[in-house]
């Protein structure tokens, strides 16, 4: 399957998924890349600490507005990238037909989850950003190979 669109999913859609979305957009121009949350803080901007850490690395989360994941939304994307195995399980319960297109954001880095930094120390936000960035690099490498042949 050719990937033309990616939905990045976490819980609140204010820390990990907006950061992952913006990192992937920078690495994969031309693809439709958006984000959502399984328990989204609908209408909220990106978390201030996440935005500050991203900004310090040259990534803007400006203009982000949190939205709720729904099965209909998920169906409109080729690939759904989640932060934790429990997120994949939850999507499978909500929309079993989406399980085959739902993978971990850090699938290619050897890790098995990107922990939620929300409300934690600044160094946790920095670690989360680093992990998201490495995972975005890995996805971009693999998806570009498929596109470039």
UniProtKB/TrEMBL annotation:
| Keywords attached to this entry | Hydrolase, Protein phosphatase
Every copy of the Phosphotyrosine protein phosphatase I domain together lies at 4-142
Domain of life of the organism in this record?
A: Bacteria
Top enzyme class of this protein?
A: hydrolase
Under the heading InterPro entries, the entry gives: LMW_PTPase, Ptyr_pPase, Ptyr_pPase_sf, Tyr_phospatase_low_mol_wt
E.C. number(s) listed in UniProt? 3.1.3.48
Q: Which reaction does it catalyse?
A: O-phospho-L-tyrosyl-[protein] + H2O = L-tyrosyl-[protein] + phosphate
The record's CDD domains line, in alphabetical order, gives: LMWPTP
Per the record, the similarity remark reads:
Belongs to the low molecular weight phosphotyrosine protein phosphatase family.
Q: What is this protein called?
A: protein-tyrosine-phosphatase
């Amino acid at each position: 399957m050719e990937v033309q669109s990616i939905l990045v999913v976490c819980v609140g859609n204010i820390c990990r998924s907006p950061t992952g979305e913006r990192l992937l957009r920078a690495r994969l121009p031309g693809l439709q890349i958006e984000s959502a949350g399984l328990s989204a803080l609908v209408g909220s901007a990106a978390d201030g600490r996440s935005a500050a850490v991203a900004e310090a690395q040259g990534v803007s989360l400006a203009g982000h507005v949190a939205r709720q994941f729904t099965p209909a939304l998920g169906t409109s994307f080729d690939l759904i990238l989640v932060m934790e195995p429990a997120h994949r399980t939850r999507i499978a319960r909500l929309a079993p037909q989406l399980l085959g297109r739902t993978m971990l954001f850090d699938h290619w880095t050897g890790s098995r989850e990107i922990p939620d930094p929300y409300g934690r120390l600044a160094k946790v936000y920095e670690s989360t950003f680093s992990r998201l960035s490495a995972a975005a690099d890995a996805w971009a490498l693999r998806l570009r190979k498929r596109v470039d042949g």
